[in-house]
Amino acid sequence: MKHITLACGNGASENNALIQNVFFKAFQNEILAQNNDSALLPPLGKMAFSTDSYTISPLFFAGGDIGKLSVCGTCNDLAMMGARPRFLSASFIIEEGFEVEKLEQIASSMREECAKNGVLIVTGDTKVVGKGSADGIYINTAGIGEIIYEGLSPQRITQGDLIIVSNSIGKHGASIFAQREGIDLVSDLASDCASLFPLLQSLFDTNLEIHALRDATRGGLAAVLNEWAMASRQCIQVQQEQIPISDGVQGICEFLGFEAYALANEGTFVMALPSTQASTALDLLRSHPLGKEAQIIGEVNAQYPSKVVLQSAYGTKRFLDMPSGELLPRIC
Amino acid sequence: MKHITLACGNGASENNALIQNVFFKAFQNEILAQNNDSALLPPLGKMAFSTDSYTISPLFFAGGDIGKLSVCGTCNDLAMMGARPRFLSASFIIEEGFEVEKLEQIASSMREECAKNGVLIVTGDTKVVGKGSADGIYINTAGIGEIIYEGLSPQRITQGDLIIVSNSIGKHGASIFAQREGIDLVSDLASDCASLFPLLQSLFDTNLEIHALRDATRGGLAAVLNEWAMASRQCIQVQQEQIPISDGVQGICEFLGFEAYALANEGTFVMALPSTQASTALDLLRSHPLGKEAQIIGEVNAQYPSKVVLQSAYGTKRFLDMPSGELLPRIC
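^ Those are the sequences you sent over. The predicted structure of the assembly is below.
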């Protein structure tokens, strides 16, 4: 079979064949193999639980594909709560006529990304909708993580905290945009799409004091900082020249009149922590391939409560607002 | 705002407004209100974990809507493993232009159905895709349940077991089909869409010995019985005249040349248990509004291993095969 048919979603023979030949083959593990209505899981301590549906277009992009994204996106949401990703569900809405070969590629990316997180796909679902009722494939994953680091909360952000970003910003948004629009300014522009638990684990393990942690996905750095400023009622002041932005991203932004602050990331987090902890955190982050561009970008103070202030190299200041409108639909 | 715009999926202002005004309002609970990347959950004992994406068309049907279905479908999968539904995630893929009023209706149905299950929606996601990239709305739910009854498995089905069906069959499939095709043969035809944990709880609590339990969704009764026959390598023999089928469903089937055995159900389960347990089970089921049509429909024997045999009132026999092909896409 080369293309998905409506019968592949019928809950019977063809559906079982698709599940066995593509998904079970890629995701194999003992829990999934029991093939029950629900997966049976062992007891866990305190847990994190998260879900995302992935509708990204194009399905395959520089730096990843919808399969990789659907695993790292949800695992990252768990990691941001101090949790070790343990179990995932995976649910597919597939458009009639979708190529089975592409589906196998997507499942294979998911398997690889699961291995990086040490997470198992234990339950799933497949629906097939008629031609024109979806755009290729949408994937939902829901994840269960076990809390290994407690107390992360934007409410804990306080004056004197420093703000660290783990990576140069805007790579996911800029590269998806460039690819979708057929812009080929820079050849090395690629999404930062990556699983962040392996990068964070050493920080959790050394029991560093971290106040807040969030991956800067839709809405980018600007959305995270604004949410934090509002939740903590503090002023977050960032230094423009400290915020890492690659030449490729900068080029796309200048070309299209965007700001990198509002562009989506898929392998980049923001962290608030006491200044005493910052250099240890930075060292740990930079010692990992995913964190080598990590930077302290600003601090928390009392100047403009609930606001984010961007200070330029020339000393001028402006508010960095919560993004609004839709810059780029179907970014994730 | 009357219609969903692409900006409602941007991860920033408009997205937050939609989440607050529609979803948080409908689903309110303390865990959800923390509004983190992931929900924080307390430790649980052995768990069941399940997911389904719902793509049903039409979105509103006799007996329910996609919201009700998205909660009972996933909670039922948990209940079938002996679990009490505890926590749900809810993820929405919404087509640009979808009416906010309909979304509110769907969220309100979800809230009602959650209450019946005693389950909380604790985390979620909203994506908006452009016009023509989805058909109104697709919903994914993933659920975590706590196991309160252990040992359910088709492998435990053994000779002498009786097979009970909890409800007359085929109502969901027949009513969706009738509505979609504009057939109005019978006015009281409605989906059986319902949450089954409340019906099962008394059976779990009295510690009745149940070998296997499954809700007969896509593929209907025929798919469940065939999966069980194959998993247990036993022969399942059912009596045609014992299988409850309403006049309305029978009418649609005769009109369209279907068999009710392969039609989907959304509030009907099949149960295999030792004959000594059957009358107690039947009494408990019939004492609940959702189980008043429950029937013993057959038995497990050694005649044709891994096969399902349907015996007519006249004593003739035939194999009831695993359904194949796609009778009716987007049934759930």
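The mean pLDDT of chain A is 95. The first helix of chain A runs from residue 13 to 27.

Shout if you want it in another format.
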